[in-house]
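agent: user wants the structure for DNA helicase RecQ from Bifidobacterium gallicum DSM 20093 = LMG 11596. delegating to structure tool.
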Amino acid sequence: MIPDATIDDAQRMLHTTFGYPSFRPGQQGIITALLQGQDVLGVMPTGAGKSVCYQIPAMLLHGVTIVVSPLISLMRDQVDAANDNGIPAAFINTSQTPDEQALVFQQALAGQIKLLYVAPERLETSRFQAFATRCDIALVAVDEAHCVSQWGQDFRSSYLGIGEFIASLPSRPVVAAMTATATQRVRADIVRLLGLHDPHVTVTGFDRTNLYFDVLRLANKDKAAWIIDYLRTHADQSGIVYCATRKETQQLADTINAALSTSGKPVAAAYHGGMDGQARDEVQRAFVNDATPVIVATNAFGMGIDKSNVRFVIHHNMPESIEAYYQEAGRAGRDGEPSRCTLLWNDGDVVTRRRLLDTGPDNERLSAEEMDVVHTAKRHLLDTMIGYCRTVTCLHRYITAYFGENSIIADEGTQACQGGCVNCDGDVHSSDVSAIARAISRCVHDVGQRVGSGKIVRILRGSQAQDIVQMGAQSLPTFAMLADKPEAMIRDVLNQMASDGYLTITDGRLPIVMFGPKAAQTVAPDFHYVMKTTRVVRKAAPSAN
Ligand code: ADP
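agent: tool returned. relaying tokens verbatim.
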């Protein structure tokens, strides 16, 4: 510890302890603020170097730094890495016996530990609180701080106790809230709910210009073949394939190995939260050491894994939010080299994701009203994800606009695409579907916002099905208005309108199509609506730039 340490001391420590020549964007400002006792909100993409931002102050400030992290499974790695860098670190979690925990507390109180990693739940235990009131706590670093907000993905009610914990300490430490994913709304929540005092806010660039973004709509039955084709043409590369379920990871890894592995050496290994810790460690190690080039994983894989030469990330299914997608896709190309992020999706993913909206696991502290907010927020996140799949504008701009919370839809691409994306490459065809969208909107009005999408489509196509006849739909002005359009196309436009906010599809077993917040725009004379129709699927998957 250096009394009244300055940024020059931090700089020296960056060289000597970490071996880096200079700070990365954002780091210097954050460290300066913390050393001066100012709270921090740091929003930096994965891989930008958030840990250094609190590890250096931890070494330079008096007392102990508490790192609150939800990732119990990674604590050991984080602690090992810190110790390797010469920072005395330890964790307290449920994997330890009470005696082991007592030893860590004792070391922290004796000043032998500078960094103490804990899960948020731990802060609420009386034992930890008794320790905390006796301990000289200089800094509380909250990792994955977006978990405190119901407007972000990954909301965890245990994060709501962190602000209270900090406020209960006899002497208020400086607080650093760090996250890779926070829209403006989430940022405001972090400041409010963690009780940050006039924080120094740093948001570093979200555009990862070495990543090429690709979106491909593909039926489930064709996804494995596409992936195998991609792996075959990129046999020298390492990458991650993300699947939605544990079962899929195993099946896909087996299919890939059956198709591609020679001499019994697997090309791909499955990884998911249902595997025991040892098996997971082995798979992870083989991937990091380049022994197994491809990992087929659920979203349990990746947090804290520091492998720089991941050349591609393929999503076998659409994730629940842009945050989740960007966090996972962002594991490609941490070394700055060109890398490719491909998202495979289809309408089945949308249906599955909508169904899952109601099943948040972490809601025991919430009132019905608060649950409604969570639900609305999740819908919004999902709609924006679907929008990403369907947009015809630059995918880089879509993502950065999202994190800046600008208007995405109005943000037609006028600027050159950084890093490249399939839309800017002109590999997609789009068509003007304004007339179809207008007809759908009128039909929703005609039926009084009371029926589901199947019926809307049948009415517009002039179906003679019994349920349509029985409801007297023939007399509606929009009956058979789109008789010449394919059913799939009308359905597609309807779904896109729902993700763009022109319509709302209610949840539940019998979803109803209603007007969304932008519905009125569809009757404006200059209403113009475009939809991505086909994507030019090349025979062989392209190389990573
Ligand atoms: P994050 O938590 O933001 O995802 P990490 O803290 O894990 O990122 O850092 C990502 C990688 O960048 C690590 O290997 C880290 O050691 C490295 N790193 C951090 N700061 C610097 C720096 N100033 N110069 C070079 N490498 C750095």
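agent: one observation worth passing along. The two ends are 47 Å apart (CA to CA).
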